[in-house]
């Protein structure tokens, strides 16, 4: 199949017999922005966890370009070009904003390389430009732990921008944000998803409508529906299981 | 750009550079000028002993303060360095004894060139693994490569399996106990509970002269400052930032594309190297390698040096080792029984009320001073 960057086939994971994701097929095209929605416990986060290597699937395959991600471990998957943003903002709180961005620069990630790595012009410029994109250009020297919740979310997106992944996995990027921050983030996401493939998990329907190309609905670990936002919202099964209540 | 007013714990904002260099120079002044001028040979010998232990404390700042790995087994690496050096010195001493009056007798018993404790334990042939310690170059290499290698392999195997935190501390604790038990148990090869002692010379230099003691003191101080400088270089590099990130959120670091196990094993190996150098210098100056410096108690004491000095400050760790060392000497001379309780209480007080140790206190005072000055 041409143009596919991510191919997930027959993916299953069971935790003590409970199948969080059950025989799921999931395909993402080059440069696509895909939203994954579904009620709590639908297996959305677990799906991202398996793609990025945090959770090992019980069976099934995950192919990213020509690589079998299900046979690789986290840092190898990251180096192959998959970036992950977690649900709770995961930034390095004891480091400053600029240091957070610095260590996300995807060069010299072995021990000796890091030991003798000196910030170069290209990196400093990239940090400046990313900081501007994520609205943190004035906070570069502040410890990340002192940022507000929304700013931490942005910083984590910024760390991913430094990594410049081909496939970006975002888990609830606007959770806990104010209305104004949501708008800014939607803008940010549409901007950064250009030229790369993105998978976003989100609960906020208005937000999904703002950004999505195509929507996948999961329910109890299975695929329920897939299509444009309008198609999905008018699907009777979706209305019944998810949007209905 | 706004300036941060938060106290620095991980990496340096502007101005901290100058402060770092300044406190390094102050320490150098203290070690190279003030101590030698103000102390007699006996006191200087004590200082040298504490400085040997300060190597371990500096290593603990790296692994514990920045890597978040609490190692309760640095005595093992200190011991390896100490014993490797002792083996060399002992063989030199045994060789010298041959050329003096004892030759005929020991030749008769077939123990020529054999360390005395081996003869007492009816070990008649020098074990093969003692042989290479005839050479000073091998000994130095063994001290510089052996302990870090052991630490790296041990660390990597554990960290890769994601054994960390308290569990790794217990592993290191067990290691310290095993090492001490092994040394005591294998008396014929290790000198047992008495350790290895009674050396006379190092490469022909008489270790008992005042001059030799001065020379050794200066070498120790210089090596210690070198280790502090190496540690500072590591912390200022990207490795330092990755370590803080690992301490903070190890899981997340994997998704930044780093292998945390490798970084943790690396810093653990560096700390082992520092400890081993300290151990070798200790043996050269105190004239002893003993299992009482390898086991759990000395290993925990080393952690206390770092905690008191400040676990985020390499230079603080040196002061911590000196202060606690002197306090130990003073109190154990006066209240022998009471000392362990005192040091235990000291540890608790520091951890509870001064989590960043003396260095943290100095930083806070300095911060207050700077704020007042800025007004």
Using only C-alpha atoms, the radius of gyration of chain B works out to: 22 Å
| Number of helices, where a helix is a run of at least 4 consecutive DSSP H or I residues of chain B | 15
Global shape of chain A = globular
Q: Summarize the main sheet of chain B.
A: 2 strands, antiparallel
- Per DSSP E runs of 2 or more residues, the count of β-strands of chain B stands at 4
Distance between the termini of chain B: 20 Å
Biggest chain pair interface: A-B, 40 and 31 residues
**Spatial order of the strands forming the largest sheet of chain A:** 6-7-8-3-9-10
Please state the CA-atom Rg of chain A, rounded to the nearest Å.
18 Å
Binned, the helix content of chain B reads over 70%
Shape of chain B: globular
Indicate the structural class of chain B.
Answer: mainly alpha
What is the chain-wise order of helices and strands of chain A? EEEHEEHEHHHHEHEHEEHH
Question: Describe it for me?
Answer:
- The complex is a heterodimer of chains A (245) and B (375).
- Chain A has 245 residues and is α/β, with parallel strands linked by helices.
- Chain A contains ten helices and ten strands.
- Chain A has helices spanning 44-52, 74-80, 97-104, 111-115, 121-133, 149-163, 179-192, 205-211, 229-234, 236-243; strands at residues 4-15, 18-29, 33-37, 59-64, 67-68, 82-85, 167-171, 197-201, 214-219, 222-227.
- In chain A, strand 4 and strand 5 (67-68) form a beta hairpin.
- The radius of gyration of chain A is 18 Å and the shape is globular.
- The N and C termini of chain A lie far apart (38 Å).
- Chain B has 375 residues and is mainly α.
- Chain B contains 15 helices and four strands.
- Chain B has helices spanning 16-38, 41-66, 74-99, 103-109, 116-120, 136-160, 165-185, 187-190, 210-236, 238-254, 260-286, 296-309, 314-334, 339-353, 357-374, and strands at residues 196-197, 201-202, 205-206, 288-289.
- In chain B, the strands form two sheets. In chain B, strands 1-4 form a two-stranded antiparallel ribbon. Chain B has a two-stranded antiparallel sheet with strand order 2-3.
- In chain B, helix 2 (41-66) runs antiparallel to helix 11 (260-286).
- The model of chain B is unreliable at 1-13 (pLDDT under 50).
- Chains A and B meet through helix 2, helix 3 and helix 4 of A and helix 10 and helix 11 of B.
